[in-house]
Amino acid sequence: MSDAEAPSTTPAMPDPAITIENLGKRYTIGHQRANVDGLRHAIEGAIRNPLAWLRSSRQKKLQHVDFWALKDVSLQIQQGEVVGIIGRNGAGKSTLLKILSRITIPTEGRFRINGRTASLLEVGTGFHQELTGRENIFLNGAILGMTRAEIIRKFDEIVEFSGVEEFLDTPVKRYSSGMYVRLAFAVAAHLEPEILIVDEVLAVGDAAFQKKCLGKMGSFAQSGRTVLFVSHNMEAIRTLCQRCVWMKDGRLHKDGKADEIVEAYFNSISSEQSFSCSNPDYGLTIQKVVLRNDRGEESGQFRPGEDLIVEISYDAHKCIEKPIIALGVLGVNGSCFTSNMLLDGHRPDFLNGVGKITCTFRSIPLLPQNYTVKMIIRSANVKDLIVNYQEVAGFSVVGDLAEYGYKGEFLTFARHSTPVVVPYEWRFPDGTTAAVALNRPTALVADPRT
To answer: Are 373 and 289 within 8 A, CB to CB?
Structure first.
């Protein structure tokens, strides 16, 4: 046999777990045509001839508008991949998962799934309100494709994982939303599918259960099964997923390594975000909130040890005496630090007309992670809220920790660590010491004489 005739020894690539080709989903939305006669004529017509007015109102035609929730989406997901799907509300994430779960059908395009699939898209999907938790385990398991023998064999594990053993014989209509999702996820997780599709239902559970679910999904990934995971929790995406897909306006915007896509997504939100709000009762409008670095440049990225300047532009149509403003910087693990006029006692005598207030956080002691800024404004009596506590800006801290003297073996864990680092010092048994701080590296500090 010649070399040309010799059989190839290259192993065949396994078929993709999910193949999506030019997928599209169109919905038709009905809008009632506006009453061009105006409110006055409508009221007159209703008073003069109520029956005729009611009949004409019912006969008003609806204007139908096509809305593409998905358009031209093509994607391949290999067996054993853990893929996160991110994007703003309305980007098409849930629609895509519903099509892959065969809950709805696409308007155009096609998809192929190779393997046993379990989906958890909505809290309590497949549960019957009048049945008990025990009965719903068997019902939901059967809907997901488990045999009765398989459910019986895994029953105790499902109950233990869900943590609802005490209420197992209670109708699920009396369950809280958290209990619902715990039981639903427990059943889906113990199906042991080749492909697990999960939407943002985990946000309903408490922190301990979310951690438990993420651990279960992590074990799924380590066992070589395919996971498709939609979440607004960027840290969960980074932790679980090697790959991330960014959906935008119903289309696939970016696809790549999870860290890179999440960073690009977060930077996009920071740059696009333009917070504004108004309180007519107090005559105050917050026109925008801008983040600046210590060079005065508007930015969504900072380095450890840089100054973070929060600039609040306002227009006070009425004079507001001694308002109380508080700002909070939050990381993925919660609050990092705050500035609070109620505590420090510093506040403006009044706000009147157009102006700005800035707060400079000096030498932010933050590890490279993503952060948000929240704001609240109270009246002088403290009780009345002028602006509710809400997110007004976002930013990320970037940098190589080795430049700051860090030389640990596990620097990649920094993104999961408690983010704030106050200066500290180790003292060892041999008498030596080691100081740690997020001061800016000498090379990054400008010489004041230049």
So the answer is: yes
**Two tokens, residue 303:** 């380095």
Q: What is the three-state SS of the chain?
A: CCHHHCCCCCCCCCCCCEEEEEEEEEEEEEEECCCCCHHHHHHHHHHHCHHHHHHHHHCCCEEEEEEEEEEEEEEEECCCCEEEEECCCCCCHHHHHHHHCCCCCCCEEEEEECCCEEEECCCCCCCCCCCEHHHHHHHHHHHCCCCHHHHHHHHHHHHHHHCCHHHCCCEHHHCCHHHHHHHHHHHHHCCCCCEEEECHHHHHCCHHHHHHHHHHHHHHHHCCCEEEEECCCHHHHHHHCCEEEEEECCEEEEEEEHHHHHHHHHHHHHHHCCCCEEECCCCEEEEEEEEECCCCCECCEECCCCCEEEEEEEEEEEEEECCEEEEEEEECCEEEEEEEHHHHCCCCCEEEEEEEEEEEECCCCECCCEEEEEEEEECCCCCCEEEEEEEEEEEEECCCHHHHCCCCCCHHHHHHCCCECCCEEEECCCCCEEEECCCCCHHHCCCCCC
List of domains in the chain? 70-270 (3.40.50.300), 274-450 (2.70.50.60)
pLDDT digits (tens, 9 = 90+) for 229-267: 888 777 678 778 889 999 999 999 999 998 888 878 876
Instruction: Report the side by side order of strands in the sheet with 334-340.
Output: 301-302, 385-397, 370-378, 324-331, 334-340
- The C-alpha angle 367, 371, 372, rounded to 5 degrees, equals 155
Nearest to 342 by CA among 378, 386, 390: 378
Contact 148, 59 (CB under 8 A): no
| Distance in angstroms (rounded) separating the CA atoms of residues 48 and 101 | 54
Contacts of 83 (CB under 8 A, 6+ apart): 77, 226, 227, 228, 229, 241, 243, 244, 245
Distance, CA of 446 to CA of 355 (rounded, Å): 31
Q: Give the pLDDT confidence of 172-226 residue by residue, as tens digits.
A: 888 877 788 788 888 877 877 888 888 865 555 566 677 777 777 778 777 888 8
Section 400-413 average pLDDT: 79
Q: Are 301 and 354 in contact (CB under 8 A)?
A: no
Q: How high is the pLDDT of residue 215?
A: 77
